Amino acid sequence: MSKAITPRAQDYAQWYNDLVIKSGLADYSAVRGCMVIKPYGYALWENMQATLDQMFKETGHQNAYFPLFIPKSFLSREAAHVEGFAKECAVVTHYRLKTDPAGGGVIVDPDAALEEELIVRPTSETIIWNTYKNWIQSYRDLPILINQWANVVRWEMRTRLFLRTAEFLWQEGHTAHATAEEAMEEARRMLDVYTRFAQSFMALPVIQGVKSPAERFAGAVETFCIEALMQDGKALQAGTSHFLGQNFARAFDVQFLNKNNEQEYVWATSWGVSTRLIGALVMAHSDDDGLKLPPKLAPIQVIIIPVYKNDAQKAAVHAQALEILEQLKKAGFRVQYDDADHVRPGWKYAEYELKGVPLRLSLGEREIQQQQIEAVRRDTREKMYLPLDQLPEQVGRLLEHIQQEMFQQAKNFRDQHITSVNSWDEFLQVLDEPGGFVYAHWDGTAETETRIKELSRATIRCIPFPDQLPDDGPGKCILTGKPSERRVLFARAY
Question: What does the pLDDT read at residue 2?
Answer without folding.
Answer: 43
